[in-house]
Amino acid sequence: MEFSSIGADDSLEEAKSRLNGNDVLVVWGQEKILGVLTEEHLEKEGNCGQVCELDILVDPDPVKSSIWKPKYVIVTEDGEPVLVSHGP
Fold it and tell me: What's the rounded Cα separation, in Å, for the pair 6 and 33?
């Protein structure tokens, strides 16, 4: 999936402009990934951190991922997201 990043305190208007050309936005809190945003989340009210999808796993092992069955899996390298995919 194509993705970009956005801060939890950013507005949904900012998210709309960053989603252009991307499938999802990775939402960052102060120091860690909180969730992801898709087009469907933009219909809600609040900021990015309030409306993002929280059903994610970051860098899970395959067993953990198959047990938890998250909506999204985020793979990082040196703390930065490099791959976002739908969960199992």
Answer: 10
Here the tokens at position 47 are 């900021």
Count of other CB atoms within 10 angstroms of residue 72: 21
Q: Considering the domain 3-86, what is its CATH architecture? A: Roll (3.10)
pLDDT at 26: 98
| Residue that the structure tokens 């252009």 belong to | 20
Q: Tell me the domain boundaries of the chain.
A: 3-86
Residue (of 67, 65, 68, 8) closest to 83 by Cα position? 65
Query: Token digits for 22?
Result: 């991307």
pLDDT of residue 62: 87
Which two structure tokens, joined as six digits, stand for 71? 């909506």
Q: Are 71 and 87 in contact (CB under 8 A)?
A: yes
Task: Quote the pLDDT of residue 19.
Answer: 95
Single pTM value for the model:
0.93
Residue whose entry in the numeric block shows the structure tokens 């990082």: 76
